[in-house]
Design a protein that fits this description.
It is built from 9 helices and no strands. It has helices spanning about 15-35, 45-50, 55-60, 65-90, 100-115, 115-125, 130-155, 165-185, 195-210. The chain has 2 domains: about 15-60, Homeodomain-like (Arc Repressor Mutant, subunit A); about 65-210, Orthogonal Bundle (Tetracycline Repressor, domain 2), CATH 1.10.357.10. It is about 65% helix and about 0% strand. By secondary structure, the chain is mostly helical. Helix 4 (about 65-90) runs parallel beside helix 7 (about 130-155).
């Protein structure tokens, strides 16, 4: 069980609360470096703490086990990826077509993926760890796909209601394509130029989203 952080006296001008935040930050940064290089399965508490430059006992103030640190690192990686798209959205010209919009919001997304530590954590290290991690991964992918497809859909017009279309499954299919492309790009050591990767995914998404607005309504 983790110990309650935040107790203790100020030391060297640093309060106990600030010290807790710093140590946890050091562990998160170390987790990204270690999980993103040697991998989660090769990581140990001792090795993580050595990388973070904290005593082994401090690990358990913040995390029960290495899986908890992996999840915390993964969630920060996903936040970076999501924020890259959200921050690009206000710059999008509302008169743009779907493909142009997709290129604008996905370029910063794929720029973040050029961090190989992040890419390895997101697309390799969280797979097959445990049912809990797997559920988290699948939920994150679904939420991301729904967000992106919903946003792009606003540039193509409303999607008619039809019994032959499941929007959630469509979001899953779309994010699956993006995810597999990101993994392949990472494993190729980023062989293709980012602009080509982005343009290719934008074309795929445009071909998915634009036809939805002309589907016949169900009766």
């Amino acid at each position: 069980m983790t110990e309650a952080p935040g107790s203790g006296r100020a030391y060297g001008g640093e309060s106990a609360a600030d010290r807790d935040l710093r140590r946890r930050r050091q562990l998160l940064d170390a987790g990204l470096r270690v999980f993103g290089s040697v991998g989660y399965r090769a990581a140990t508490v001792r090795g993580l703490c050595r990388e973070a430059k904290v005593a082994d006992r401090h690990f358990y103030q913040y995390f029960d086990k290495t899986e908890d640190l992996l999840l915390a690192v993964y969630q920060e990686c996903i936040a970076r990826l999501t924020d890259s798209i959200l921050q690009a959205m206000p710059e999008v010209d509302p008169r743009s077509d779907v493909r142009a919009v997709a290129r604008q919001v996905l370029d910063p997304f794929f720029h973040v993926i050029e961090d190989p530590h992040l890419a390895r954590v997101v697309w390799l290290e969280v797979l097959g760890v445990s049912p809990h991690v797997e559920r988290t991964y699948l939920a994150v992918m679904q939420q991301f796909g729904s967000m992106l497809l919903g946003y792009l859909g606003t540039f193509a017009g409303p999607v008619p209601s039809t019994p032959d279309l499941d929007i959630d499954l469509l979001a899953t299919a779309a994010v699956g394509g993006i995810s597999h492309t990101a993994l392949t790009w990472f494993l190729s050591d980023y062989a293709a130029e980012r602009r080509i990767v982005v343009a290719t995914i934008a074309t795929m998404l445009g071909n998915v989203v634009e036809p939805l607005s002309v589907l016949p309504e169900s009766t």
